[in-house]
Design goal:
Layout lengths: L1 E7 L1 H5 L3 H11 L2 E8 L3 H7 L9 H8 L4 E8 L2 H9 L12 H5 L8 E3 L3 H11 L13 H4 L4
Antiparallel strand pairs: 1-3, 1-4, 2-3
């Protein structure tokens, strides 16, 4: 099973879209294994966005993600990375497909509602960065056999 970090970023929280994001991922068939509503410490933000350090938008990105609460979650399922990114839509909201979260609710790249891991490797790394191992709940649902083939 793939795991992905999903953040409802400060703009999504301020606009009351946490439930919308969770609902769409649940309806998609993915399984929530960790969640916490939190203010992001600067140190965590800097580690999370380390790949962007030195870029012109880095300081603003750190300022933004630490400016208000986020909903941090880990979701899992077969092909979770691809399915979640498809559900969120393209990073640039004007390129996002109709029916995706970013198409339906976002206008600007810097206020695009969510973050989702972009690879299986990053999904694992980001989940470990944001959550302690004991915060990830291993569980199965009665519907899993109807959603996950051969599981």
């Amino acid at each position: 099973m793939e795991k992905s970090l999903v953040l409802v970023k400060p703009d999504g929280v301020q606009r009351g879209l946490v439930g919308e994001v969770i609902s769409r991922l649940e309806r998609r068939g993915l399984r929530l294994v960790a969640a916490k509503f939190m203010l992001v410490p600067r140190e965590l933000a800097e580690k999370h966005y380390a790949a962007h350090q030195g870029k012109g938008f880095y300081a603003g990105l750190i300022e933004y993600i630490t400016s208000a609460p986020v909903m941090a979650m880990v979701w899992e399922g077969p092909r979770a990375i691809e399915l979640i990114r498809q559900t969120m839509g393209a990073t640039r909201p004007w390129e996002a497909a109709p029916g995706t979260i970013r198409h339906d609710f976002a206008v600007e790249v810097g206020r695009n509602i969510t973050h989702a891991s972009d690879s299986v490797e990053n999904g694992e790394l980001e989940a470990k960065l944001w959550f302690k191992p004991e915060e990830l709940v291993s569980w199965s649902r009665e519907i899993d056999r109807w959603v996950f083939e051969g599981k």
